[in-house]
Give the backbone structure.
Amino acid sequence: MLCVDLPMKETTQVLVGSLDQIGLGQGRCFVIGTRKVAVFRLRNGEVCALDACCPHRAGPLAEGIIGGGIVICPLHGYKFSLADGRGLDNDLAVSSYQAEVHEGMIFLRLSRAD
Amino acid sequence: MVSANDSRQKLIVIGNGMAGARTVEEILARGGGEQFAITVFSEEPYGNYNRILLSNVLCGAQDPSQIFLNPPEWYEEQGITLRLGVRADVIARPHKAIHCDDGNWYSYDKLIIATGSRPTIPPIAALRKPTGELRPGIFVFRTLDDCRRIAEYAANCRHAAVIGGGLLGLEAARGLLTQKVEVSVIHLLDHLMEQQLDPVAGALLKRTIEAMGIKVYLKKLTKAVLGDNRVTGLAFEDGSSLECDMVVIATGITPNAEIGSRWGLTTERGIVVDDQLRTSDPDIYAVGECAQHRGRVYGLVAPLWEQAKVLADHITGSNPAAAYQGSKLATKLKVMGVELVSMGAITPDGEHEDVVQFLEARRGIYKKLIIRDGRLAGGILMGDIGKGAYLMQAYDRGIRLPDERLSLLFETGAPSVQVTFEEMPDSVQICNCNGVNKGAIVASVAAGHRSLRAVMENTRAGTGCGSCKGLVDELVRWACQGEIVDDPALHYYVPGIPLTKPELTKKIRELGLKSVSAVFDALADGRDDAQSKPGLASLLRTIWGADYVDERDARFVNDRVHANIQNDGTFSVVPRIYGGVTSPAELRRIADVAERYHARMVKITGGQRIDLLGIRKADLPAAWRDLGMPSGHAYTKAFRTCKTCVGTDFCRYGLGDSTKLGIAIEKRFQGIEAPHKMKLAVSGCPRNCAEATVKDLGAVAVENGWQVYIGGAAGSVVRAGDLLATVKTHQEVITLMGRFMQYYRENARYAERTYRFVERIGIERLKAILVEDCDGQITRLDQEIESAVAAYRDPWTEGCQAYESTQFAEPVTVNEEAAGSSV
């Protein structure tokens, strides 16, 4: 059997800070280099991360209401999936990032290339 | 053409009138030309023509050649065998063949009978020659030949009588009028066109056509034709008579169903067909005026088109589920130049129907609508049919009518459907906020979104200011063609919890649910829902007041930071300026704050306040502290502002002290939360400079008192408020306003503005509850609003002590070098 190692896209794990920087059930924007990421702290303890800018009119997604696995942009109400950034009532999409909490600290996995 | 090696099934159509021809067209449109070798037999020696336009031929408005639908060449091009002037006389069902008067047998696999109907000839003495034919000078009005013969004969006549005051009779009378003869219409019943009109409309029509020179005789049963060789008159059963030298009979139609009854097909008035237009022999169909479906024989063109479609769907197999359910009759006519719409029931059946009507006899305008369960069951429009297209559509599709009945009869200021959806091009923009056009909504329905909510979610139509929602709803219903899915969520207070507002309120009280997350846990199996959160937060606060457990994630960002988010993510700050009256000291502080926190614009608002725009979130608490003024709530669903005019203090016209009252109102109700925002105004005289009649609540001073208006609007919808009451004192105005606010808080849907709410409940009902105390609620309502006022706390005090540490948090900048680690 022939095994091929596919070159994994190089990723970086970034510690963005403590969980209590984010209000319960709310989001907050983190600026990492040139990138702005909205991190959401769900009431069930999970965290999710999406690009912070709504692709519609650049609304701040971190200020949006979350619930039921979605975030609603505060400017015009566009909805996106917290899981994968897919637009739910629109054809747009935002990037999503893997986010984890270890001992009250939030870690994001970002690709290096971008 | 049929040839020996043709593998196609043989389809024979008997009759080439509008039904037969249309059915053939529909079959071809479904690729039936590949399946069937089609032969059409036409008794008339012409190709088919549009019989609706026959009277135009009689009056010379159209040439006979213009009313042909398909010329004989068309049949040739389509590969159809057309046999003109050939009559079928036998159906040998066991052999699946028909015999015709050309002496030949023709075999079929499928047979369609579309023999139409013929004029009904009433039993009148001396009508016929001994041979059975009608006497010279006696005509029916049915075919192109009839038309031509009537016109020729009329040239030598002075006075023509038309027997029958129905639609066809009046059409004939119109035609004859242009032939320069005197015309009389004889009708058996007590008003004209009783199929389409009620007595009022019939009488109006009579007046109109009499003014055109036609004599109308009602309740006349014709007994005999007078005259030996030439017709000289008619004798009636009541002993009277009428001189005339020609007669046109237009007393209805009789289906040509004999070919069915004679050859063993179940036949009553017409040949009986099922929902697939099949007769009692499954290989034989009947369509049009010769067919009887669910006890009815139709004599109008629209039902026949619907039948033709279903028949074609079925016979070609292109839609085996196709079923004809009977037709709703809605017709738009022009009778003697009078425009007329008639549909469905023209008189109410019972007490459960509302009748909405308008009559202006002198101008011949009559409008009558019969409404059952909020939908149109039928009606008549005469003289002015401006709303006809919309109403016919509403009738046909069973669209729910707006509660505002006046707008059904007249073009009022409110937005209304001006054209039918059929006529509306796809490019017409329906939702002006999100730029969604008709085509996109129709496409969304076609893609399977079968409720208003599903289409709104899919297209975003109606999700902006919401003023087009009614129109979107109607368009969705239209596009669904009766396949609309009843969406129970429409009645829920919030989409995520399947309960109406009263049910939800009851549950919340019973279970003592004091926070939004507690509601999700108890009533939605712990599944939270982003869209439902703000509505729940609002309701819980209204229910529990100070005991409400405030979870800030349930709030929209504006309500978390008590400021209005702008398109660049900054915020606007509007301090409260009671009644629009400020002072030099306040203005200085406002100016200082604007400079200190780099307001990008300082703007006078429409509500007589000052807006500082472009303030960063983190600066909000300091800006509020420095202002030293309370929040103006210009960001939330609550009491916003109370605009005033100068009033008696300065104005020479002032009747009431509007500034004093406005300030008192604003001090009392500032920040009271509600299902939607409430904008108020007080004017000191009926000149109404503060525009109080287009506010959610407004007061206007009159001599000796104040008028209190509710439900006004001047935004995406413009609506003049309704007068709730006229009272004497400031205190009475304040009490009445508070009482309405509390009733609105308790009973409106989330995000329902007062203008919708007042329309929904009705001003008379609101007067009964809030002024006359018909159900004994007044005392309680007054107490509830009093405790809401008492519980008020200026949210800008959070500028001194934030509710939570993250409340005014700006983005965090992460030091990548320090934080990152390659994995």
Remarks:
- Strands of chain A lie at 11-18, 27-32, 35-41, 47-51, 65-67, 70-72, 79-81, 96-102, 105-111.
- The first strand of chain A starts at residue 11 and ends at 18.
- Chain A is about 0% helix and 45% strand.
